[in-house]
Each structure stands twice: as C-alpha cells, then as structure tokens.
Design brief:
about 220 residues, single chain
Length: about 220
C-alpha cells in the first residue's frame, strides 16, 4: 500500500472509530440501539399506540396486559428527559406510524437540570413540534408529571409545568392532557405513598392500575 493510500485508510479508520465511540458515549445511545434491534427482530404492529418518555413508562413492561384490546409499543427509556426525546426524535417516531402517541416525560428535566418551568415547557413544545412535523394528524396525549414523594422539593415547578402543558394542549388539535394527579391522592388530597416502591419514585402495579382507569378513555 502506498504511503498516501495508507494515510487515507488510517484517517478513515480513525474517523469511523471516533464516530462509533462518541455515538456509544451519548446518553441513551445503547437503549435506542436496543429498540432498533427489537424492531428488526420483531414485526412492528400496524398502527400501534406509541408510548415514549421516561421510567414511569419504561417500568410499565406489561402495559399491554392493562389494555388488552390495544396494540401498544413501549419505547420509553429510564432516566430520559424531554431533551433526550428531542435528540432521538427521529429514532423514536419514524419507524412506527402510530395511531396515537402517549408521552410521559419532564419529571427528570425538573429534577436533574435545575431549569425553570418555562424551560421545561419549551422542551415539550419542541418535541410536540417534531411529532407534528412527522405526523400532522396523529392524536397526541401527555400524561401529567406525577408528584413523586422522593422529589417533593420539585412539586412547585411540577405544578407549573403541568399547567403550562395543559393550557398549551387545549390550543392544539388532536391533543389531550391526561391528569393523573387526583387519582394518586388519598381521601385527604395527599399523595399516596403505598402505591410507590421503596424509592418513592417508581410505582407498584397498584399505581399503574390507577393510571389505567384514567388513561383508558383517552386511548384510541
């Protein structure tokens, strides 16, 4: 191999390895690649209801059992923020051609980034815009951010973000806001801790049963 050819070969190899390395280092890169692997190995249901968001959806692994008459594809990944949904929007949206999209995300934005409520809301608007650019007529529903006991210090901003998103979705076509706050409260209006696992962040099946009651009327 001539010196200039060797140089070109080594340079291209360096570029390829660098892209691979940095791709793997991006947050949630492996999770998104796993989704692609699953989709490659299994036929994507025709016009499914697509779930995207963070761990409250991720841990709902048996969500299809809660809605036996629906075809649901769960593509949520734990720890994700609206920032991450925006970054991976094409990977999360393009393959599925859904009949409806459900979002649960924003709780980690509030807890991890120290943003204002407006900043979190703008992240949601950006993701909603990406959905509309791809699927102008697909119904979208946003599940309100829950009041996790372990994140009580963030409840004021959670309230503001939820209100902003609810108000915004009222102005949009084929868009709904699903409020799961009241169903998670006890008779005195306090958040029930018995429906959470020990970390007081993620839910037991009893919590998902409550969500199901509220969400069922919204599912297409």
């Amino acid at each position: 191999m001539r010196p200039n050819q060797l140089f070109k070969f080594l340079f291209l190899a360096f570029i390829f390895n660098s892209l691979l390395f940095f791709g793997q280092e991006k947050p949630f890169w492996k999770e998104v690649q796993e989704f692609k692997k699953i989709d490659h190995e299994n036929k994507i249901p025709k016009k499914p209801i697509l779930l995207v968001g963070s761990s409250s959806f991720t841990y709902w692994k048996d969500v299809n059992d809660y809605f036996p008459n629906k075809k649901i594809v769960n593509r949520a990944f734990g720890g994700s923020r609206l920032v991450d949904l925006n970054y991976y929007a094409d990977d999360l949206l393009n393959p599925y051609k859904p009949r409806q999209i459900l979002i649960y995300c924003g709780e980690n934005d509030v807890a991890m980034d120290n943003p204002t409520a407006t900043e979190v809301f703008e992240r949601f608007k950006a993701f909603f815009g990406k959905i509309r650019a791809k699927y102008p007529k697909v119904p979208v529903a946003y599940v309100s951010i829950k009041y996790s006991p372990s994140r009580k210090e963030f409840w004021p901003i959670v309230k503001d973000v939820n209100q902003m998103i609810e108000d915004y979705l009222k102005t949009q076509k084929r868009a709904e806001y699903i409020n799961i706050t009241e169903v998670m409260n006890d008779a005195n209006g306090n958040v029930r801790t018995d429906i959470f696992v020990d970390d007081m962040l993620h839910m037991k099946p009893e919590g998902y049963q409550l969500w199901t009651k509220v969400m069922a009327p919204y599912l297409k």
